[in-house]
Amino acid sequence: MPRVSDAYLAARREQVLDAVRICVDRSGLQGATMEGIIQASGMSTGTVYKYIRSKDEGIEAAMGTTLDGLTLALLPHLTAEPLPPPPVVMDQLMTTLEEFTRREDYSLLRVAMHGWSAALSNPDLLDKTAGTYRAFRDLLQGAATTWRTDGHLPEDADPADVAASLLALMMGFAAQQGMLGDTGAAAQARGFAALFGAGRSQEPAPKRTTPRPRGARKR
After folding, report:
1. What is the pLDDT of residues 77-88, one digit of tens each?
2. Residue 102's closest CA among 161, 185, 171?
3. Contacts made by residues 194-199, CB under 8 angstroms, sequence distance 24+
4. Within a 10 A sphere around the Cβ of 174, how many other Cβ atoms?
């Protein structure tokens, strides 16, 4: 028999994981079943079980590969040299998040929300998920450190605080769009830019000294 390529096997596995995501989006974590996953995949029962041994294993794999893929897609925006100002980078991050999660057969944002719920009751999934989010927050902290050095943030700004706030904005966008679906990356970027500009405008203006007329003596 001809050897099956790794790329082919990876594509088949992703097809199974897509079926998991479809079922979770349609039926939730409790409603998703192996029977439904097999049906959604269009594969035989034996083929599906070759890639995942249970629904829980499929959910863990689907969530893990999604987070890994999203992190890789976002990484270039946080490691660019030179690094653009915060409003530009947030626009890039939100746009990439929106484009990455857009799927024809399911809402990846809703699937992510189910994943958060699953992680709260699954210690193994929580460890993997939290580890990925912490690593991404570290990338945001590195970007915040660069922004402070470049003068885009106040000198006393804590990069860790900035990173935590930015991650909260991104996760909040995912939750809002997943539940309401009535906003978008462009609106989020404009809102952040407005808030960032307002915050910068509140910085104390440098003190100005009135020039002394020529010839005037010091007192």
Report:
1. 999 999 999 999
2. 185
3. 196/86, 196/87, 197/87
4. 21
